[in-house]
Structures are given as structure tokens and as C-alpha cells.
Design brief:
The chain is α/β, with parallel strands linked by helices and about 260 residues long. About 35% of the residues lie in helices and about 25% in strands. The model is unreliable at about 250-260 (pLDDT under 50).
């Protein structure tokens, strides 16, 4: 005798657990729960309305993952991107680091350098750099957004007006060429935009899962020249809109179609 299907409330609880474990595709979830894709869409819409998930094209993302859980996702790609970014930084420079897991890894690669000034609103970067005397660490003050450990607020924007870094490195939850950087809050999108325009050179750090993705409804326009540092090896074919601005992270990095080492 077949087991009865769970009720709506129980199904949505199990659906949330499935999303947290990494299952996010509509068709996959519909098959798993033995219901129609339209039912799954309604369930995900209900979970999104309660703030448990964020709807994406064809699925959903768990919004309640901790920063450490996020850091473990695509860890090898993030590490390669962080190494490629660190190789761009020259001794004596002033560097502005956005909050995020990949920028936190970048901070780790900069920690043993001498003579750098690092300005950041990221708790992860602060943790990596606070114990190193060779780094002049400047922390932007404000309110901590706990979901991604970003320091935000008017005080951050005010401080950014007094800083002119050599390089700024931005994290991203999603990157869409004609929209910019996708952000979880309006407040964060405004801070990222101020950072983007603060530096002499601007870089976006985004692994392959972030390209052409829009999990949130707030945007930082990429309305100045920037370079995208990513691990997507076929980015010029898969995402030709980024091809002329790419630094490919890996054993050898590619800059604008030419090999670049270190």
C-alpha cells in the first residue's frame, strides 16, 4: 500500500529542507515530491514570501545559509579567484575589499604582505587581517548585516567619500552584464556602487555559478570600466558579454583573451 502524500504544510517543510541540501530545480523537486511543477512553484513562492528562500530562474536558493556554509560552496573556484586577485595587488597599494566569502579568501592571501593598506566593510576580511602588523587595516563602521557579514549604512558611505584606493574588489551574488551586480538588499547595492566608483581599478570576483544569475531584486549597476575575475573556462563562449573584461582564474590566468601569469 502506497504511503499517503504529505499535506501542504509538511510538504513545504520538507521542500525547504531539500533546498537547504542543495536541490533547487523545479523539475527535480516536482519528481521528488510526486507533485506537479506548478505545485512546487506555488510552494516555493510561499517559502519566498516567508523569507526562507529566494526564487531563482527554475528553482530557489536558501537564504538562511550561514556565511561559513556559503564559503564552503565552490571553495576551489573561490580560492583560485582569490589567488588571481591577490596577484594583481602591488606592494604599497591601498586596497578596498567588499564583504563576501571570496573577498574574505582574498584577504587571507594578502595577510602576509607588507606595506598594504586594506579598507573593508567585510567581517570575513577583518578576521583574516586583524592579527597582521604588516597590514594597515581600516574598518568601515556601520551596522552588520548578519546574512553575509557586511557592514552597511550611511556611515560607510560617508567614509568612502574620503578614500581613493588603488584597487577595489567586489563580491557578487549574481552578475548580469546589462544589469550589474545582484544584491540581497537595497542598502547593500548602494554601498557596492559607492565602492565601485571609489577605486582607480575595479574588479568583480564571481565564480561560474554567479554568472548571468539574478537571485535577488536589487542591483549595483556596473557603470564604469571593470574587470571580471572568474573560474569559468569557456566564459568567452558561454557569456560573450563578459569576454573583453575577463581575468580567468586557474593555473594560468587569461586577461582579455591573452595568457597572464601572476
Amino acid at each position: 500500500m502506497s504511503q499517503p502524500r504529505p499535506g501542504t504544510r509538511d510538504r513545504r517543510a520538507m521542500l525547504l529542507e531539500a533546498v537547504r541540501e542543495g536541490a533547487g530545480g523545479i523539475a527535480e523537486l516536482a519528481e521528488e515530491f510526486g507533485v506537479s511543477e506548478s505545485t512546487i512553484r506555488r510552494d516555493l513562492a510561499s517559502l519566498a514570501g516567508a523569507g526562507h528562500v529566494v526564487r531563482t530562474y527554475g528553482g530557489a536558493l536558501d537564504t538562511e545559509r550561514s556565511p561559513r556554509e556559503k564559503d564552503r560552496e565552490n571553495a576551489a573556484a573561490k580560492e583560485a579567484i582569490a589567488r588571481a586577485a591577490a596577484a594583481l595587488v602591488k606592494d604599497g597599494e591601498v586596497v578596498l575589499l567588499d564583504a563576501g566569502t571570496t573577498t574574505g579568501r582574498l584577504a587571507r592571501h594578502l595577510a602576509h604582505r607588507e606595506g598594504l593598506t586594506v579598507v573593508t566593510n567585510g567581517v570575513a576580511a577583518i578576521r583574516e587581517l586583524a592579527g597582521f602588523a604588516g597590514i594597515d587595516l581600516i574598518v568601515l563602521g556601520g551596522r552588520v548585516q548578519h546574512t553575509d557579514e557586511a557592514v552597511l549604512g550611511e556611515s560607510v558611505l560617508a567614509q568612502l567619500r574620503h578614500i581613493s584606493p588603488d584597487r577595489v574588489f567586489l563580491g557578487a551574488d549574481g552578475v548580469v552584464a546589462d544589469r550589474g551586480l545582484c544584491c540581497p538588499s537595497l542598502e547593500q547595492s548602494v554601498v557596492k556602487h559607492a565602492m565601485l566608483h571609489a577605486g582607480a581599478e575595479a574588479y568583480v570576483l564571481a565564480d561560474h555559478t554567479k554568472l548571468d544569475q539574478a537571485p535577488f531584486s536589487y542591483w549595483t549597476p556596473l557603470d564604469r570600466e571593470y574587470r571580471l575575475i572568474t573560474d569559468e573556462p569557456r566564459v568567452d563562449v558561454t557569456f560573450p558579454q563578459f569576454a573583453q573584461s575577463v581575468i580567468l582564474a586557474g593555473p594560468s590566468e587569461t586577461v582579455g583573451g591573452a595568457a597572464h601569469h601572476g
